[in-house]
Amino acid sequence: MKLLQDVRSVREAVRAERRSGATIGLVPTMGALHDGHLSLASASVAHCDVTAVSIFVNPLQFGPNEDFERYPRDFEADAKRLEPLGVDYVFTMTPEDMYPEGYCTYVVQEGLFEPLCGAFRPGHFRGVATVVTKLFLLAQPHAAFFGQKDAQQCIVLKRLVDDLGFDVDVRVVPTMREPDGLAMSSRNLYLSESRRRDAASLYRALSAARSLYETGERDTAPMIAAMDEVFAPIDDIVVEYREIVDPVTLQRIDRVESRALAAVAAKLGPSRLIDNVVLGADTLW
Ligand code: AMP
User: Per residue, what are the HEC states of the chain?
Assistant: First the structure.
């Protein structure tokens, strides 16, 4: 496994791999890797000749009062977890390398940035769309792997690839969960013991909505009420949203006609957690 720590050496390695005819799989991450990230890396290893995992805590996708500074960084532990999977490259770049002085070019989308997390994290998806565009141009992957846990991100990036005509196969990998249902996340590391217990309520709420759907309910109001009931007894939680949305437009719907996305975001102390389930299908992708 090769560690490449600047844009120039990444570009050279990619050129050589492309010349040899290898298919390249890219797994963009911000590090602090857990089994969810590793499942993306394994999917890429299974699917592509060469797998590159990028580790870059992207300042552009954090708001001014968010956790960029204290986001967990443990590069050595991350590399140790990736090596046995058969990952070929780990790319780490510095913010200065990605956004040199005078940087002023951004990727924006109309419509998909505003709902759900976009309403609470202004600028977040601009940061995501910009860094992923740059990573695609740099790593020139044939396929790129993202987690369903960040469903809005997957929808934004699929649209970006279609709209800009990137020749990249965007693959979405199911959410990996802890035994109590909590979606794995680097931000779970911030949780105290009692908040860690409360954090499982996100998945319990989504499961309550899904159970109603599975028993034939199609109106979203009772599903939202069922989610609220799960959150009600938890003192410490600040629910930012719990929505049932159209999986293409991300707009709220009153009835689930075919497929829908049930999505939640909540703050538990210093951790902002998100999760989602698909109604009417196993996956949107
Ligand atoms: P992050 O490092 O949080 O930016 O995540 C990097 C990639 O890993 C994104 O595509 C995430 O959606 C994905 N990911 C994060 N958590 C999980 C999880 N629990 N299961 C599957 N994929 C995940």
Answer: CEEECCHHHHHHHHHHHHHCCCCEEEEEECCCCCHHHHHHHHHHHHHCCEEEEEECCCHHHCCCCCCCCCCCCCHHHHHHHHHHHCCCEEEECCHHHHCCCCCCCCCCCCCCCCCCHHHHCCCHHHHHHHHHHHHHHHHCCCEEEEEHHHHHHHHHHHHHHHHHCCCCEEEEECCCECCCCCECCHHHHHCCHHHHHHHCHHHHHHHHHHHHHHCCCCEHHHHHHHHHHHHCCCCCEEEEEEEEECCCCCCECCECCCCEEEEEEEEECCEEEEEEEEECCCCCC
